[in-house]
Amino acid sequence: LWSSVSATPPPAQSPLGLGSSTPPAISIRPQSIYPQPTTRRLRVYTFDPSLGQELGTYRLNETVAAVRWEEELEPGPVGEYLEVVDIDPASDQCYPPVDLNDPHLLASDGLRPAEANPQFHQQMVYAVAMRTIDHFEKALGRTALWAPHFEFVPNGAEKPTLQARYVQRLRIYPHALRAQNAYYSPEKKALLLGYFSGSQQRIVFCALSSDIIAHETTHALLDGLHRRFREPTNEDVLAFHEAFADIVALFQHFSLEGMLRDQLESYRGSMDHESVLSDLAIQFGKETGHHDALRSAIGTPPSPGDYKASTEPHARGSVLVAAVFDAFREIYRRKSNVPIKLATGGAGVLPRGALPNYLVEALAEVASNVAAQVLQICIRALDYCPPVDITFGDFLRAIITADKHLVPDDPHGYRVAFASCFRARGIYPEKVRTVSVESLCWEPPPAQLANLTHALEQMSFRWDLQTSRASAWALARDNATKFQHWLVGPAVSDPELSMLGLFRSANPQFKLTLSDGSVQIMDMHGIEVHSVRPLQRVGPDGQLLSQVVIEITQSLYGIEDPTFVVRGGCTLVIDLNNSLITYMVRKRADQTARMERQQALWANYSPSLRDIYALPSGWGSEPFAFLHGVR
């Protein structure tokens, strides 16, 4: 402190001996005295502007979001993760960017919510997207990265090589489209949010819906983790993308304390009724001709036929969302018994009339904590998923494995709730005879890789929440290159590669025998180490888990139809303390059943729809634009 203070020599003492009669001239550098804020408070709509139209909810229409403090936040806003660009092509307008560091806005928690103020739209998309990023980073224990840009680079006399380029910021265009659509663009690495005239001739802005913003941001975050999850190799893949984005948006509702207390008071502590907490995109749904919200986590009672009966991505995804929300309700119901019994003298029967305020507060705390835990469990499970061709059953196994590895004991039955609720909706993992917690966990490989310790010693895993994102990206790329060279080198034997479901060398004439005895000729490409990322988490017992996740893929391309691609590979979860593979999640590229299932799926696509998903440029790189446009 004193090193930043400079003072003139003290004058003579005052006649009374009480020190100087005039204070010394002191110059203070404020930046070295005042601590930097940890959060920035910004006003947003709680869900969207529709709550302000109802007498019962207008007081809850606005809330204040606390997002992480960014010192170098520029007008836009433009920060470390996000860049808001407010260009409206339909109106030929470019709106002035909001400056959230303006002293007047810092003192008033940002701009007041206003549907007609484009600068508030900029503020809201920034605040909600940053909250979504925070949920991911807290659960995964490392800084989040966006999917890279890929571009062809000249390589002398040889063919140009495809190289990845670091993407620092996800762009958000609050007024990109005059249409009933909003989507994440993998090609532009941007969120394009639309606006339109609703059923009551009122302009509806997707940029003012917390659910839509969180949903699209989750698509981008998921794409940064699993780039192959936007390739529809089975009916679950695109449905999983939609469902997971809905899950993240849904459980962020429970961090809204005022709304949570209001709904628990209205429904007497129950989570079994449809409410704004279980609804998604309320205004969008109503203004586009739906009776109510666009989607809801509470619908018909669970049935084993739910999963098989739904094939459209949004309908199929809603089954997964319902299963996860069912698990949340079961856990909440069990844990809420404690405050209810304390409030009722052990009877456990709620009194008639309004619940006492202290009980509502206690139930709100339980619901908020359980929702946060369920959301973290789902996000952590992403590190335990296969690198390609994900199914809902794979996600269930990832949830159970990730949670059991971090929390060996399960006194409140979280994992049992997930397993039973998935089973009630008809979601069963492949090749698992019994849907019990023990059988659902992924398994280690039948044998360990002999020289794995040597490979890990060559890599660095300095990637956590304090690591700069550019350094983390460069480190991950360097680790992937080193592991790929080791994997295809002499240190790994052919039997070990086969155990991982991989082939050492590319083979343009790879023969695959189908179930009817015919032979399909495919072009086998080389091994690709898709991702190397560390896992450092502290369990409830204080135990530090230090692991690394390595995702490896390999692709088979059709000779007659190069747009037909079958990918395989495996996810390895490795314990850095002993250099042993804890779990192996494998999808073989040469598995006949998987290839035939994908062929049958693609046979149902029209040529134009296949182009949307398969072409390397244009619409082929924008699956969500098409997917969200036909909801």
- Helix and strand content put the structural class at alpha+beta
Beta-strand percentage range? 15-25%
Give the oligomeric state of the chains in this entry, treating copies of one chain as homo and distinct chains as hetero. single chain
Q: Figure out the total of helices.
A: 19
Poorly predicted sequence stretches spanning 5 or more consecutive residues: 1-21, 607-620
From the spread of the alpha carbons, the general shape counts as: globular
End-to-end C-alpha gap = 59 Å
Helix content: 25-40%
Number of strands: 21
In angstroms, what is the radius of gyration?
A: 27 Å
Q: Compute the average pLDDT.
A: 87
Reported for the largest beta sheet, the result is: 6 strands, antiparallel
Q: Can you summarize this structure?
A:
The protein is an alpha+beta fold and 631 residues long. The protein has helices spanning 103-107, 118-140, 210-225, 237-251, 257-266, 282-287, 306-309, 313-335, 337-343, 357-380, 392-406, 414-424, 437-440, 452-457, 469-487, 494-499, 592-603, 607-614, 623-629, and strands at residues 5-7, 26-28, 39-45, 62-68, 82-84, 87-88, 93-94, 149-155, 158-165, 170-177, 182-185, 190-197, 203-205, 279-280, 295-296, 507-513, 519-524, 528-538, 544-558, 565-575, 580-587.
Give an overview in words:
It is a single chain. The chain is 35% helix and 20% strand. It is built from 19 helices and 21 strands. Strands 16, 17, 18, 19, 20 and 21 form a 6-stranded antiparallel beta sheet that branches. Strands 5, 10, 11, 12 and 13 form a 5-stranded mixed beta sheet that branches. The protein has a two-stranded antiparallel sheet with strand order 1-2. A hairpin with a 5-residue loop joins strand 16 and strand 17. Helix 4 runs antiparallel to helix 10 and helix 8 packs across helix 10. The longest helix is centred in the middle third of the chain and has 24 residues. The N terminus is likely disordered.
